[in-house]
Amino acid sequence: MSLGVRRLCWMALVTVLALTAAAPQAWAQQFGGTLRVAMIGEPPTLDIHNSTATITTHIAWHVMEGLFTLDADFGITPLLAESYTVSDDGLRYVFYIRRGVTFHDGSPLTARDVVASLARWGRVAVVGQNLFRNVARLEAVDDSTVELELSAPMGTLLPALANPLQMAAIYPADLANSTDGPLTTIIGTGPFRLVEWLPDSHIRMARFENYAARDEEPNGYGGRRVAYVDELYFYAVPDPATRIFGLEAGDYDVADWIPTDNYIDLQLAPGVEPVIVKPGEWVGAHWNTQRGPFADGNLRKAAQAALNMELIMLNAFGDPAFYRLDPGLMFQETIWWNDAGKEHYDQRNMELARRYLAASSYNGEEIRWLTTQEYDWMYASSLAAVEQLRELGLNIRLDVVDWGTVIAQRTNYDVFVTGMPLYADPTQLPVLNCGWVRFYCDEEHVRLVNALYETVDLAARQEILRAIQARFYEEAAALKFGDFFRLRGRRDYVQGMQAMPEPFFWNVWIER
Asked: pLDDT of 349-396, one tens digit each?
């Protein structure tokens, strides 16, 4: 379907929807049933400390919980913490743990579990490692009180503890202390408990009957959580067409990561409803600046100057309603957005690119570019970008593999493509962290990021981020193509789903 025809269909559907939306139906929450969710593939692990993969969070956080999470405005709200205090000098935090919370194995949640879990998270998670370099003391005062003392003030402590991705999840202490490697036993305090994981088939969860919900109204990822469905199944369905056909046929109740080209198909399919998620992520190419061809800054700047981001995003997402061109490393919907470096973004200047290329040491050697078709937009954006860079004269080999292989092999390649989801704080953005894949570890960049960690004043932190972003573009540290908005699909009997960036299925019920 051409872009023009798609836009005409879009306008017609808007008219139809306006006429049919006048009398919304009221639904009453119901317990029971099984919810079947089609995901893009297998998570590398369900140990949420040990993976930056978003699919790990999207599945595991139904089982695992942390002290804090994010509300509907992406502000910080308590979850397993009842409350907290901060000393006047900003160095001492006291967390008061909710009483009456139990793990799935029946043991009570105590401060000992919190200390052991946070210490492990600080050792193995990228976000935790960055935080814990300034943690001077962490101890349980009594069964429901934890004290954390910093060696220097940090503006990132609570955002780090509330971050859903590579979450500071709380495990039973003995489990947290058992290994720093990926856990195969997953026990948490969440509304669902893990029942089984059959690789290449499904992950099955069941309602945790002794779950201790908060009293507040649901608010974003926070507030009261209720497991309305009896069982929750996650299926690995890498092919997007299979996810769509399965949703339309009723084999799945929810399908994640639907290509945006299929928006109209979902609108027209009987019994199916689309869910548009905004903001979603930003997509970009990340190159190894430590070794290989892109260790040469002039080659990186040549690629940055050459690319037409509109063509890349149009190829990946099909309709401008599902993407925007924007230089910000943090989204417009957050307090962190700025446009520093915009003069280097989306330049579409092949003449300038050729001058940078001539000044580089590149001599036609093969560039290895890694992507996957499991996320169709990663593949489509890679195709469009590679085509333009080949026109510039770069010798690029495009390797297409499954997502698990991308995670395992990305550091062995010159370039790989991935998305950057919404984070509560810019220090959580993987591309800004040298420890992520060690692709971007420029000394001045690391100094600025350290300053961002150590600064508490919000206005000062915003200025530091502006400096980081300006240098990011000046050094062509990575390629941001653009922001995109995600599309999910649900059967019309699935109620309570929220259009938040990270999908969750507590507070979701089946209306029959």
From this structure: 999 999 999 999 999 999 999 999 989 999 999 999 999 999 999 999
DSSP symbol at 109: P
First to last CA, the chain: 35
The reported pTM is 0.77
In eight-state DSSP terms, residue 182 is: P
SS (H, E, C) 19-31: HHCCCCCCCCCCC
Each residue's pLDDT tens digit, 474-489: 999 999 999 999 999 9
Amino acid at 68: F
Spatial CB neighbours of 414, under 8 Å, sequence gap ≥ 6: 287, 288, 292, 293, 294, 367, 368, 369
DSSP 359: H
DSSP 479-502: EEEEEEEEEEEEETTEE-----SS
CA distances for 88 relative to 153, 443, 472, angstroms? 11, 33, 35
Q: How far apart are the C-alpha atoms of 122 and 100, rounded to whole Å?
A: 26
Q: Name the DSSP letter for residue 219.
A: B
Alpha-carbon span 300 to 289, nearest angstrom: 9
Q: Are 379 and 373 in contact, with CB atoms under 8 Å apart?
A: yes
In terms of Cα–Cα distance, which of 237, 191, 168, 165 is closest to 500?
165
The residue written with tokens 């669902």 in the block is 192
